[in-house]
Amino acid sequence: MEFVWLGAAYVCGLAVMRLSLPPLVGYLLAGYALHMLKIPPLENLPHLADIGIQLLLFTVGLKFKPGILLRREVLSIGGLHLLITALVSGLCFLWLDMRVTGGLALGVSLAFSSTVFAIKVLEDNGELMSLHGRGVLSILILQDIVAIALLAFAEGKQPSPWALLFLLAPLARPLAHRILSASRGGELKLLLGVSMAMAGGALAEQLNISADIGALLAGAMLANHAKIEDLSKQLWGVKELFLVGFFLQIGMTDLPNPDQIALALGLLVLLPAQGVLFFFLFLMAELRARTAFVSSLALMTYSEFALITTGEVVKAGLLSPEWQAIISLAVAGSLAVAAPLNLFSHGLFAWAEPVLIRFERRSHHPDHLPDSFGVAEWLVVGMGKTGVAAYQALCAQEQRVVGLDSDPAVLEEMLAVGRRVVYADVLESEMWGRLPLERVKGIILTLPSYDSRITVIKQLRKHGYAGQIGAICYQVEDEGKLKQQGANFVIHPLSEAGKLLAEQIMLRGEG
Predict the structure, then answer these.
(1) Are residues 205 and 308 in the same domain?
(2) What pTM was computed for the model?
(3) Domain count across the chain
(4) DSSP 359-379
(5) What is the pLDDT of residues 209-221, one digit of tens each?
């Protein structure tokens, strides 16, 4: 039976990828198809899905920095969105002469965005730790906290007084760091990560707190450790596999009748209103139109939490039972709609940019674009390990070089050691159009996302940049496309490392 479910997920995921859609859309379709065919569900599928979500939030916790994430302006955006959505839903229930309390609870549930979806989209695009990625993450954390409170209200339960012990979690950070340092093998790191995520979730459940929050805090205990990147890589494949169970699980709920389908479609029609509301709230916080647009698309879904909270509100007698099937279909539909939109989010913004930028508010917010690179002759876009190596190589030759990155934590780290770096959303067409690039001899692109590299090259050539552009490339078939768009040379990091190793060992052998 496991083969049937996993095989269906693979086939449907492969099919939708052929249509340029993310595999998760295929997993959703596979879940509904198997349910319609009355294929018996896997007994442990919900448990596997829970593990996937906890591992996902654990990996987010590995990069968790409260000072950057929990910014007042972002939390106010999330709070206003929750309040407005709940009030509108409550008024609709009042107008329909239904229970207003149930309407308010439903409105709050519908205001939640899918944590799994948003984080996965940002992670796949290499934007999770960008300025807008951190903003989205802050809002998701706020929504999760509100969801816990709503569940407590519906169930009549409250977090245990012992839950305050979570405030002491930072005291255990030195011990957690020592344990990770002692885990030298890849298998040990993987086992430690999974164990800590599960332990954090189990402890939280014992204290009447969401297991997801416990997993997030467990990951935060390891934040800033030197081996975090290694641990994240070890967990990546395991996390992705378990998350397939989450998307399959959504299709296991009872299929709605025609009236319920009509209501679910009505909720999907209203989904753009959620995105528009987020967009203007972000603009009110003085973020740029691009940042507001991309962030709003990532949040423009109904949440997996809505399935849980709606179920508890129905049990409490505040909503009729039919809402469970309605919300289930609405959640699945919102993920299917949002997936392709987020895949092409930057392209969609480029198409709508002339209209959307009219709503921007001019300010000195960190999100706004740089005015100058000074006297820089070389630019390094993306200050990860490869970018830093390129930056140092140019500095060693006494070249004037500036690094660009959209991750505030990276910028802070680089500035602390005296490197010249600036914040820049390099996917923004406006930035390349207004900056004087005549003195810049060459630009090195080390962005992890292939689509981002393509976009930057297109923008540079579109605005008349005639200098050298070099880019990294991980797939052989992508090299021709990068050069076709205007890259002068492309480096394959792994292939070049192999060649260099061979050359060095031959030189030493001859010596």
Answers:
(1) yes
(2) 0.67
(3) 2
(4) G------TTSPPS--TT-SEE
(5) 777 778 878 888 8
